[in-house]
Amino acid sequence: MINGMHKARKFSSGCFLRGKFYVLGGRDENDKHLTCGESYDETTNSWELIPDMLKDMTFIIPSQSPPLIAVVDDNLYMLETSLNELRVYDINTNIWKKLGVVPVSANTTFGWGTAFKSMGDRLLVVGTSHSWHRKAIVYSCRPSPDVEEQHWEELKYWCTGAELPPFIHNCCVMFA
C-alpha cells in the first residue's frame, strides 16, 4: 500500500518524471479545479504537495478535460487546451514556459477529443485542424525547451485513404 495524496482528486493526469510519479490537476470533491500537483517518492512512500503547479492554466468550463501532459527526455510538456499552446515545466522554479502554438484546435472541444502523447523523443498530437473541414490530423515534433516555437510535422500517411472519426485516431495513439 502507498500513502494517500494530500488532496483527493478526480479527472487528474499522471506521469513518471525523474524517478517520481506526478499527479497534476483534477477536481476536488466539490468539483472545483485543482491547480496543485503532487509527486510520489517510492523510496520514502510519501507524496510531496506542489502548490500552484497549474496556476497559469485557464479553466474555461467545469467540463474541461484533464491536463494533457507528456514526458520527453525528462521534460514534462503540457498542451494548454484553452490557448492551443505547448508548454514545458521547469521542475526547479514551478513555472511553465511557453513553447508556441500547436497545430490543432484543442480549444474548440475544451481538450476533449485531442490526444497528446510522447513517443520516444517526439511529441504526438492528434486533433482537428484549424481549417473549416475539421478532419482529424496527426502531428509530431521533437520538442526542445530552449526553442520558443516548435517545428510540427504533419504525419500525412497516418491512415491513408481512411476517414476515421477523431475519437478512433485518439484511441490508436493512446494505445501505442
List key phrases describing it.
single chain, 176 residues, mainly beta, 4-stranded antiparallel sheet, 6% helix, 36% strand, globular
Any overview of this molecule?
With 176 residues, this protein is mostly beta strands. Helices cover 6% and strands 36% of the residues. It has 1 helix and 12 strands. It has one helix spanning 166-175, and strands at 13-17, 20-24, 37-41, 46-50, 68-72, 75-80, 85-90, 95-101, 115-119, 122-128, 136-141, 153-154. A 4-stranded antiparallel beta sheet has the order 1-2-3-4, with no helix packed on it. A hairpin with a 4-residue loop joins strand 3 (37-41) and strand 4 (46-50). The model has no long low-confidence stretch (mean pLDDT 86).
Alpha carbon gap, first and last residue = 29 Å
Q: Give me the oligomer status.
A: single chain
Average residue-wise pLDDT: 86
Largest sheet, in brief, is:
4 strands, antiparallel
Count the E strands: 12
What share of residues are in beta strands? 35-45%
Secondary-structure element sequence?
A: EEEEEEEEEEEEH
| Helix percent band | under 10%
Judged by helices, strands and strand pairing, the structural class is mainly beta
List the helices and strands and how they pair.
Layout: E1 13-17, E2 20-24, E3 37-41, E4 46-50, E5 68-72, E6 75-80, E7 85-90, E8 95-101, E9 115-119, E10 122-128, E11 136-141, E12 153-154, H1 166-175
Antiparallel strand pairs: 1-2, 2-3, 3-4, 5-6, 6-7, 7-8, 9-10, 10-11, 11-12
